[in-house]
């Protein structure tokens, strides 16, 4: 990789970042497209200085991950209308010194789900109520799904449920009824805590479409159990790649090499597993 004074800097903020494969995926995409850019890890516990830091250091774009997708919003110069409605951003763009927030999680999730099933009129259980859950919930609501929210914290879960007009359950009180689609949006089961599952596996019924947005590992324990129960499972890799491709296009104005990005992530995960 060539680094010079013209190299454009991108990166990811969040804490921790040990699970993230964004640098691997985006740097390979920059290389493929011949773009003089680099994408770096920026472990970040506090977001107060992120916007001023981007401006001072001419950082052109950032991905935003756990736990900052909601808290970063109040520091931005501008928020895309979709992201503002959701109340969470996962993408920052430095456009002529103004930091603009976008949400590509919603796009990535809906594209991944609709490749497997229609969502209009379906009963969808969303596990979690963080930034990613908010993006997915609002996107599914727009598609006409019937939403149910389950979360560990009642306050946060009920807030999201009210915003999208969904029924709320505590994680320990999810009814053992059939849902058409279950989407797991928490970090439970993410590397290195790969033996954890977020809820009782009794909610997994044969034929249910189950997506876990965790992509590292590629198949979480939750998805493994779901597959054993006869569910139609969707790996978090799909959403991760699609949301990343949308980020790439926002940052560069060029079409993203989607299949290359997918192959890069899957190859890394398979090699790591071995």
The CATH homologous superfamily of the largest domain is named: Leucine Dehydrogenase, chain A, domain 1
Strand order of the largest sheet: 2-1-3-5-6-4
Low-pLDDT segments, ≥5 res: none
**Helix vs. strand class:** alpha/beta
- The first-level CATH class of the largest domain is given as Alpha Beta
- The end-to-end distance, rounded to whole angstroms, is 27 Å
Structure summarized in a few sentences:
The chain has helices at residues 22-33, 50-57, 81-86, 105-114, 131-142, 154-164, 221-228, 236-252, 258-273, and strands at residues 8-14, 37-43, 61-64, 78-79, 91-95, 98-102, 123-127, 146-151, 167-170, 181-184, 209-212, 232-234. By secondary structure, the chain is an alpha/beta fold.
What can you tell me about this protein's structure?
The chain is α/β, with parallel strands linked by helices. The protein has two domains: 8-103 and 238-273, Rossmann fold (3-Layer(aba) Sandwich), CATH 3.40.50; 106-236, NAD(P)-binding Rossmann-like Domain (Rossmann fold, 3-Layer(aba) Sandwich). The protein is built from nine helices and twelve strands. The protein has helices at 22-33, 50-57, 81-86, 105-114, 131-142, 154-164, 221-228, 236-252, 258-273; strands at 8-14, 37-43, 61-64, 78-79, 91-95, 98-102, 123-127, 146-151, 167-170, 181-184, 209-212, 232-234. The strands form two sheets. The chain has a six-stranded mixed β-sheet. It has a six-stranded parallel β-sheet with strand order 9-8-7-10-11-12, sandwiched between helices. Helix 1 links the parallel strand 1 and strand 2 (37-43). Helix 1 (22-33) crosses helix 9, helix 4 (105-114) crosses helix 5 (131-142) and helix 4 crosses helix 8.
């Amino acid at each position: 990789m060539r680094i010079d004074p013209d190299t454009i800097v991108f990166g990811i903020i969040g804490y921790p970042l040990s699970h993230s494969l964004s640098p691997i995926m985006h740097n390979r995409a920059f290389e493929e497209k011949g773009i003089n850019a680099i994408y770096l890890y920026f472990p970040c516990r506090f977001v107060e200085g992120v916007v001023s830091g981007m401006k001072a250091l001419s950082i052109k774009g950032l991905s935003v991950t756990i736990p900052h997708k909601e808290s970063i919003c109040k520091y931005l110069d501008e928020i895309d209308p979709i992201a503002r409605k959701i109340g969470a951003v996962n993408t920052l763009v430095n456009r002529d010194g103004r930091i603009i927030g976008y949400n590509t999680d919603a796009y990535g999730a809906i594209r991944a789900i609709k490749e497997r099933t229609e969502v209009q009129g379906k009963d969808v259980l969303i596990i979690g109520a963080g930034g990613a859950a908010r993006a997915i919930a609002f996107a599914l609501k727009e598609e006409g799904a019937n939403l149910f929210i389950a979360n560990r914290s009642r306050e946060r879960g009920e807030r999201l449920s009210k915003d999208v007009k969904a029924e709320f359950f505590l994680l320990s009180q999810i009814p053992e009824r059939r849902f058409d689609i279950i989407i797991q949006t928490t970090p439970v089961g993410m590397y290195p805590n790969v033996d954890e599952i977020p809820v009782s596996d009794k909610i997994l019924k044969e034929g249910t479409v189950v997506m876990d947005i965790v992509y590292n590992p590629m198949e979480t324990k939750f998805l493994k159990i779901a597959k054993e129960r006869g569910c139609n499972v969707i790996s978090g890799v799909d959403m991760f790649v699609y949301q990343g491709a949308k980020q790439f296009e926002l940052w560069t104005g060029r079409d993203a090499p989607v299949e290359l990005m997918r192959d890069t992530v899957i190859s890394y995960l398979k090699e790591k597993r071995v």
